[in-house]
Structure formats: structure tokens, C-alpha cells
Design goal:
Shape: elongated
Structural class: mainly alpha
Largest sheet: none
Distance between the termini: 21 Å
Number of helices: 4
Strand content: under 5%
Number of strands: 0
Helix content: over 70%
Length: 106
């Protein structure tokens, strides 16, 4: 999906101690960002997995079942959390893929 998207790049200037300038290169900063994105996407994926294991089904299947049953506030609370984790997972996965593309081009 990302390869077909037009990815806008932006330059960022950061201030770091002079002693560290020679030790840190642009690509290293991108690897730090890649690692951060991977950590975040794995965190949110694990949260989604907890709900998949708790209910024994995917988010989509859980939503369908929830809509066809009597109101259960715990399940609705879980749905809200699960949807938030799923959204965050997809956002961080997208960021991760974008950073990987930037690294490939450098």
C-alpha cells in the first residue's frame, strides 16, 4: 500500500552535544526511529492479540457478535479499547513501513 502512496518527506534539525555529532549519522537516527516504530507496533499488536485470545475471534467477528447480542457493558468497553489498539497498530505499522522506505532510498 505504501509504495503506491506519495510519501512526503520533511527535514528535521535537532540539537545534540557536539561530542556526539561525529558518532551519529543521519542513517543511525532513522534506525532509531525505525526501532521506535517497531516497538510501538509490536506493543499495540500484542494488545490486540490479548483480545483475540480472550474472545477467541478477530475484531471484525467480535463486533458482529456483539451487535447481535444483548448489551454487555464489559464487552463494549473491550470493543472500544480493541478498536483503539487496532488503529494505533495500523498507524505505527504504516510509520514503520515509511521509515523502511526512506532507509532504502538513503
Amino acid at each position: 500500500k505504501i509504495k503506491g502512496d506519495f510519501m512526503q518527506l520533511e527535514s528535521v534539525t535537532i540539537k545534540i552535544p557536539k561530542s556526539a555529532v561525529k558518532d551519529i549519522q543521519d542513517k543511525e537516527v532513522l534506525f532509531f526511529l525505525l526501532d521506535k516504530a517497531l516497538t510501538k507496533l509490536e506493543f499495540y499488536r500484542s494488545k490486540c492479540k490479548q483480545f483475540e485470545e480472550k474472545y477467541g475471534k478477530s475484531l471484525e467477528d467480535f463486533k458482529k457478535e456483539l451487535e447481535s447480542k444483548e448489551e454487555n457493558f464489559e464487552w463494549w468497553d473491550d470493543l472500544i479499547l480493541w478498536e483503539g489498539y487496532e488503529k494505533a497498530y495500523k498507524e505505527w505499522k504504516h510509520k514503520y513501513e515509511e521509515i523502511k522506505l526512506v532507509l532504502q532510498d538513503n
